[in-house]
Amino acid sequence: MARVSVDSLRKTYDRGSIVAVDDLNLDIEDGEFITVVGPSGCGKTTTLRMLAGLEEPSGGTITIGDEDVTDVHAKNRDVAMVFQNYALYPHKTVFENMEFGLRMSTDFDESERERRVVEAAEMMGIADLLEDKPDELSGGQKQRVALGRAIVREPDLFLFDEPLSNLDASLRTEMRAEIQRIQDELGITAVYVTHDQEEAMTMGDRMVILNHGILQQTGPPTDVYENPVNRFVGGFVGSPSMNFVDVDVERTGDGIRLLGPGDRFQFDLSTAYVDRHAGELSADRYTLGIRPENVSVADGTADNTVRTTVEVVEPVGSDNYLHVDIAEDFIVRVESTITPETGEQVTLTFSESDLHLFDRDRGVDIF
Ligand code: ATP
Questions:
Q1: Number of independent structural domains in the chain
Q2: A GO CC term (predicted)?
Q3: Cα torsion for 225, 230, 234, 236, to the nearest 10°?
Q4: For residue 44, how far is its CA from the centre of ligand 1 (angstroms)?
């Protein structure tokens, strides 16, 4: 088990013209499960490969446990990595695949190797597959073998690079739970890279959000979901995405009215809200963010409402997504029993406590 510390970590390619990871600082607690998420090319894999020792940093340090491992070769780090494509040897049996890493070291005699492989295979539910070759296995079974091979090493740190991307939806759900169970049982510190924000939300004790190689935010998934520090995080975390409306501020005596483009959106902030945020509400314009699940179709009693036109009704099982004419891609998530016609007018309402106001120029959350 180990604490991991990443200080000012940087990786550039092509003589510095590509900055893959930019001044990353991150402390990971002993036994913590961290998910790393972000759009394609944001530096997730590069970060993971530097932790594994497969990529040399251009700057900064990595400490695992008490040891500065920045210049330590991959094979001398107590780290096990699980890849998306399983990376199994096709001509070796499951047993041989799982045993292979242990054979590379003189620390394990035959009986110790066998003990570890059998124990890991039992843990992964693949004890009856030990004599099979990889091409006799399903995708889910192959990934269990890859996990088992990581476990036998009893590493200080588990690194996962999108391990479930090749599996179908139901297997992914099953394997997510399995990986969490194993990590929990073994208490090994884990860093799990995924492009799937739902995976990042459900699996991690803490999530790390990267964009353009820069750390945007880190925190428990619920905190990040509720308090995104900027527009990028607000839009990236949550599905369907947070809605955004560019609003201008109209000051009316004590009050503040937020006006969207083309008179399609108007919302009065309460005086209590304005008083509470008096110091921060100084700009003349913001980008307002509101999540689809925080908007509802108003009953007759709501007083601060927005009237709009339904453009598309998208059924997604238990819910309907109403695409409405407030702003581009503005979605309202409602129960499937609410089924307005396309072109119908609806009255929407939401609580001001669910609003996010972002600095329109810098995209940074105001509060
Ligand atoms: P994905 O989700 O698509 O796997 P990622 O977040 O893992 O993306 P990285 O693979 O870490 O992103 O890449 C980060 C940036 O570094 C990208 O711009 C990528 O093109 C660049 N990059 C990665 N490896 C190299 C390399 N060997 N040579 C040049 N540029 C590279």
A1: 2
A2: ATP-binding cassette (ABC) transporter complex, substrate-binding subunit-containing
A3: -110
A4: 8
Model pTM score: 0.90
Query: Tokens for 83?
Result: 């890849």
Tokens (6 digits) for 321: 């997504």
pLDDT in tens, 158-187: 999 998 988 888 888 888 998 999 888 889
> Exposed/middle/buried for 14, CB within 10 Å: 0-12, 13-18, 19+?
exposed
Question: Is-contact 97 124, C-beta < 8 A?
Answer: no
Distance 46 CA to ligand 1 centre (A): 6
- My answer on whether 215 and 352 are in the same domain is no
Nearest CA to ligand 1 atom 24: 46
Closest CA to 245 of 345, 365, 326, 350: 326
Q: Name residue 124's beta-bridge partners.
A: none
Does the residue 367 lie in any domain? no
37-78: per-residue pLDDT in tens? 999 999 999 999 999 999 999 999 999 999 999 999 998 898
Does ipTM top 0.90? yes
Confidence of residue 1 (pLDDT cuts 50, 70, 90): low
